[in-house]
């Protein structure tokens, strides 16, 4: 799915999804499957995502509330903050880049946290 002139609103979708816009925000909820999304002109708001997640924006914040993740969560913003809430997971790779990053409590986390900039 692609648009160059507006916002995207997605809900109640199963399967592997790619959604991109160059001119608006992205909202999605109740997505079951791998989800890749990108915007250059707005914020990204995600709820009840169950699958791998790759989200990127150059002009806003990213908020994500995950039901489950399988292998990875990649959230990047060059012009805003990231707020991530996710259930306990054993093997997910987190790649988060933003002005400020807030993650819900991570129990039994093994790995490294690195702040750059």
Mind sketching the topology for me?
Elements: E1 2-3, E2 8-14, E3 17-21, E4 26-32, E5 35-39, E6 44-50, E7 53-57, E8 62-68, E9 72-77, E10 82-85, E11 93-97, E12 101-103
Parallel strand pairs: 1-3, 2-4, 3-5, 4-6, 5-7, 6-8, 7-9, 8-10, 9-11, 10-12
Short overview:
This protein is mainly β and 117 residues long.
Characterise this structure.
With 117 residues, this protein is an all-beta fold. The protein has one domain (2-102). It contains no helices and 12 strands. The protein has strands spanning 2-3, 8-14, 17-21, 26-32, 35-39, 44-50, 53-57, 62-68, 72-77, 82-85, 93-97, 101-103. It is globular.
Shape: globular
Strand order of the largest sheet: 1-3-5-7-9-11
SSE order: EEEEEEEEEEEE
- Tell me the span between the first and last alpha carbons: 33 Å
Major beta-sheet overview: 6 strands, parallel
Q: What is the count of helical runs? A: 0
The helix content is under 10%
Strand coverage percent: over 45%
Low-confidence stretches are none
Number of strands: 12
| Main structural class | mainly beta
Number of domains: 1
Report the average pLDDT across residues.
88
| Rg, Å, rounded | 13 Å
């Amino acid at each position: 799915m692609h648009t160059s002139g507006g916002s995207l609103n997605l809900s109640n979708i199963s399967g592997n999804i790619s959604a991109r816009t160059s001119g608006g925000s992205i909202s999605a909820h109740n997505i079951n499957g791998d989800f890749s999304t990108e915007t250059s002109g707005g914020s990204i708001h995600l709820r009840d995502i169950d699958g791998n997640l790759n989200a990127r924006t150059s002009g806003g914040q990213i908020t994500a509330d995950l039901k489950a993740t399988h292998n990875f969560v990649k959230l990047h913003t060059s012009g805003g903050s990231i707020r991530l809430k996710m259930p306990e997971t054993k093997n997910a790779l987190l790649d988060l880049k933003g002005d400020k990053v807030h993650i819900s409590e991570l129990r039994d986390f093994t790995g490294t946290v690195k702040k750059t900039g």
